Amino acid sequence: MDQAERELDARIDYAFAKARAAEQQAEDMERRAGPPEPPTDEDVERIKAYVEGHGRTEEWQRVIERINRGEVTWRQVVEGLATGRLDHGVAAAFDSLSRVPPASMEKLVEIGVAEPEQPEPPAEEEPPRPEPPSARRRRPVEEEDEDSFFENPLMHRRR
Predict the structure, then answer these.
(1) Backbone dihedral region for residue 147 (phi beyond 0: left; psi -120 to 50: alpha; all else: beta)
(2) What's the DSSP call for residue 70?
(3) CA quadruple 149, 154, 157, 158: dihedral positive or negative?
């Protein structure tokens, strides 16, 4: 029992050490990545179009009312999402989008969130491959025996 307990403790210590190392690596990667890029005007417009055209939940309606009163702007809402610094009401609005069924591509194009799909140009047909040269046709090989070997020596050179 003591040996099993020591083995279990060793495995737990090993797992914790690996978890600490993984956390440290994640922190290092975040530091190297630097701060997130600020959202572009296009990003802000897309989120606004999506919310107003498809994802207008009760929570978003409250945020839109705040925007209309001038308490917050669409840019502040989107930047808060990008930086992870959302106030409670905006965070609840983004969370509420999980209850909204996904929009079809047609709907996303209609509300201006996505670009219409361009028809793919017709695939160029491959030029026909040249026919491989037909294999030489060999004359059927006659059955050989020891005597026929000496009778027709040319037959043996073909091989």
Answers:
(1) alpha
(2) T
(3) negative
Q: Where are the alpha helices (DSSP H) in the chain?
A: 2-33, 41-53, 58-69, 74-83, 88-96, 105-110, 146-151, 153-157
Q: How far apart are CA 48 and CA 113, in angstroms?
A: 9
How do residues 71-88 score in pLDDT, each as one tens digit?
A: 999 999 999 888 888 889
The type of residue at 9 is D
The whole-angstrom distance between residue 141's C-alpha and the CA centroid of its chain comes to 61
Q: Which two tokens stand for residue 17?
A: 């050490």
Long-range Cβ contact pairs of 30-39 (< 8 A, separation 24 or more):
35/83, 36/82, 36/83, 37/82, 38/79, 38/82, 39/75, 39/78, 39/79, 39/81, 39/82
Token pair 């945020």 is at which residue?
Answer: 63
What's the angle, vertex CA 146, arms to CA 143 and CA 151, rounded to 5?
A: 80
Listed as own residue / partner, the contacts of 5-14 with beta carbons closer than 8 Å and 24 or more positions apart are none
Output the average pLDDT for the chain. 82
